[in-house]
Amino acid sequence: MESWGGKIAIIGAGCTRFGENFDQSYDDMAVDATLDAVRDANIGLADIDGAWLSTAFPDAGVWKGRSGMDLAEPLALWDIPVTRVSNYCASAGDALRNACMALLSGAHDCVLALGVEKLRDRSPQGSLVAMQVETGHPFYQKGFTAPGTFSVQAARHFHDNGTGREDLAEISAKNHDHGALNPKAHYRSPMSAEQVLAAPMVADPLTVLDCCPTTDGAAAVILVRLEDAPKHESAGPPVVIRGQGFSVSAGWDSPFYDPEYRFGGFRASRVAGETAYREAEISDPREEIDLAEVHDCFSVSELMAYSDLGFVEPGESGEWVRSGATRLGGEVPFNTSGGLLSCGHPVGATGLRMLYQLTQQLRGTAGEMQVEGARVGLAHNIGGPGAVAAVTILEAT
């Protein structure tokens, strides 16, 4: 297939504050993120001729995001195609991919990708865990929790690669320190590795500070073909999508029934990463990528991303994070926004929040979070038990 890398640009990006947004409805957040992106792109809503809405769990309490109507109505974006996308935690990456393909086809000229999730307005009895138990597979979902799943990954990573709880604590402390600099983050408190280790245990070896919070939020980007970007006098220079990979490498339960599965990483991440690198013509990510926003729903998922995305070998992951290489000022800073551990994880919005953060970085407008001289950034989402993954490579112009 002919490469489409480098042919699409982000001309506007917007994001709400992530947190317990009890004072905002789903519609309020959708409007705020979209108008933020529209102002950044210096366009009008009438310029948007197609839109994609990323909401992973519309039945998780607020019953919003079940169709494109839940984007069109609050924004009065009538008479254009609006498509709702759901693909677990990689929903935003899928929405972005479809929006890019629509531009490349010539069917659209200026499109919106919006992610919204409202997860705090519900009781514990209506949690995602309860929802999965009640509506999911009668065998696979009983007793299933996300921390329980990732705790198995952590234990296996420790066994195979000589890593340990201290390495996870370093990742969590790093991301909480970064999050303290991010005005959009849910948690803005610096954290020491000792505090992470002393926090209450959720699923051994993961403490509560190794786990991301349940959060509300929305994020959006405005996209055009790169050749059309000069037509728009946006607030900042366009940011080019050099490549994107998206993979559904296994079903919900399949990773755990694969006799070759080693539990220390995710095939979907590796496949999506390889596709994105091929599109972006990147052969050595550690040398060619300046910063990364990766899916740290749990600290161990960032640890696995280091090797899944080709920055180090699995056995080098612990030493790499302990060296400070992934901190601000390090060799390749990871999650300068604070990641999911600080920003939280409103599922359908997270991937677009990463693109918002990277757009700021590549424009040089990330404030205290700024990575000096950043030119190329990576965004990574995984969904389900690592069965779905999206990887996007962005470059400054």
Structure characterization notes:
35% of the residues lie in helices and 17% in strands. It has helices at 26-41, 69-75, 91-105, 128-135, 146-161, 165-179, 193-198, 267-280, 285-288, 299-308, 317-322, 339-343, 347-363, and strands spanning 8-15, 50-54, 82-85, 110-117, 201-203, 206-207, 217-225, 239-248, 291-293, 376-383, 388-396. The chain is of the alpha/beta class. The chain has two domains: 8-125 and 215-240, Peroxisomal Thiolase, Chain A, domain 1 (3-Layer(aba) Sandwich), CATH 3.40.47; 146-214 and 242-396, 3-Layer(aba) Sandwich (Peroxisomal Thiolase, Chain A, domain 1). The strands form two sheets. Strands 3-2-4-7-1-8-11-10-9 form a nine-stranded mixed beta sheet, sandwiched between helices. Strands 5-6 form a two-stranded antiparallel ribbon. The radius of gyration is 19 Å and the shape is globular.
Low-confidence stretches: none
Q: Structural class, judged by helices and strands?
A: alpha/beta
Question: What is the CATH class name of the largest domain?
Answer: Alpha Beta
Share of helix, binned:
25-40%
% residues in beta strands: 15-25%
Domains, number: 2
Distance between the termini: 25 Å
* Level-2 CATH architecture of the largest domain: 3-Layer(aba) Sandwich
Taking Cα atoms only, what radius of gyration do you get, to the nearest Å? Answer: 19 Å
What is the CATH topology assignment of the largest domain? Peroxisomal Thiolase, Chain A, domain 1
